[in-house]
Amino acid sequence: MTPTDFQQAVLGWFDQHGRSNLPWQQDINAYRVWVSEIMLQQTQVSTVIPYYERFMESYPDVQSLATASLDEVLHHWTGLGYYARARNLYKTANWLVTHTSGEFPTSIEGLCKLPGIGRSTAGAISSIAFKIPATILDGNVKRVLARFSATAGWPGNNAVLQKLWLVADSYTPDTRVADYTQAMMDMGATLCTRSAPSCYVCPLNKDCKAFQQGNPKDYPGKKLRKILPIRTQFLLMIHNSQGEVLLQQNPPLGLWGGLWVFPQVDTEIGIAETCSKLGLQIVSQTINPTKRHTFSHFHLDYQISGT
Ligand code: SF4
Known about the structure:
This protein is of the alpha+beta class. The protein has helices spanning 3-17, 30-40, 45-58, 62-67, 70-77, 84-100, 108-112, 119-129, 139-148, 158-171, 177-191, 209-213, 269-277; strands at residues 230-237, 248-249, 260-261, 264-265, 286-287, 291-294, 299-306. The chain contains 13 helices and seven strands.
């Protein structure tokens, strides 16, 4: 399939089946595309929509985001996870307001220098907001292209990633770049899905190597599972006699950076020490059974201690 045939197939499918009513597809500008792209990293469209709408209501442009407090911004992010994304949005908004009067750079190089913006996000902003030809390779697009080209291996591996960038570059058009970008994202999200690709109605099936081989779900390759380390923690839910609960703000960097959280201690002994440091007297105390929350790089086994 030539690049022109590929683009025609993708755009033809998009004209009939692509999404056009997503909130970030209205009143398009670099700011709105940027926020949507950052929210959509690691998070599904249906989850992102209400967060995006609330965010835009409070921060309709880069200036309003830059002049908000980080606390408020993190509050808007609560529940979306991966809070570094919100901190980077805030940092970038401040940088733009200080250095460029809030204007986004239009080059991929300039966009990639901003905190939290990688090559694919820069490509999406450039193509969708500025209509400048640029390649994207987000998780959905990696899946489509890994299957189409039968590129083996886990895309987190740099060599595999570079192969996929070459494939993506070779098919990116010079015209209708915004539609093409959206089309590739939509195909990955709605057609070439992780566990149930709809190959029989896919416009690429004639030349899709994985489909021809009969094994689309083998692509992209999986990361070798490694054993995650386990951390243990007690989360102190400290109530006073009025029923108020004590929260402390974490330092800006690290896990749950900048968020208001229950005081955390590593050992049961630490509970009394922490309360004494805070000048609090324990009247009664319960310790709940251990629960596990798994992060990308470790398991957190935690117990909630109510005092
Ligand atoms: S034919 Fe199947 S595996 Fe190939 S791109 Fe289309 S949906 Fe994905």
